[in-house]
Amino acid sequence: MGSLAASIRYENLIACRKLLADARISDVQRQMLLRLLTEEKTKYFHEETSSRSMIGALGNDNKNS
User: Fold this and answer.
1) Is residue 65 in some structural domain?
2) What averages of pLDDT result for each successive group of 10 residues across the chain (65 residues)?
């Protein structure tokens, strides 16, 4: 994970999933949570991919030295 922001996003993903599992929430709340979940997933996985790319690039730089 690496960064504080990614850790917070991961925790947000867990919280959204728990709230979505609650049968007592309204359709409006469910739609809002689904939108937020989608946004958080996008941010989280984008950061994960970026981190892996950066680590891979660093590894390639070390091989060329």
Assistant:
1) no
2) 76 89 95 90 76 62 51
